Amino acid sequence: MPEAWLPLADLHKLPDLDVIIVPADVVAAAAPEARAVTTAPAPVIEPEERTSAVERVEPALVGFVELPELPTWAGAAPAVRASDRRGRRAAERRARTKRRRTRLTIIAGLVLIVGAILWKLLLPTHHEVDINVDGQRIRTGSADTVGDALANAEIWVGPFDRVQPSLDASIPARGLIEVQRAHPVMLDIDGKQQAVWTTATTLAALRAELKVDPALVAIGAASTPNLDPTAPVVFRSSRPVTVVADGGTQPMATTALTTGELLSDNGIVLGAQDQVSPAADQPVPVGGTVTVVRVAAGQRSEPRVIAYSTQQKLDPTLAKGQYRVLQDGVNGSETVTYQQTIRDGQVVAETPIGTTVTLAAKPKIVAVGTRASVVAAAPATTRAPSIAAVSGTGHTESGQATYYATAPGTCAHKTIAMGTVVTVTNTANGRSTTCVVADRGPYAAGRIIDLSPDTFDKIASRSQGVASVTLTW
Question: What is the pTM of this model?
Answer without folding.
Answer: 0.42
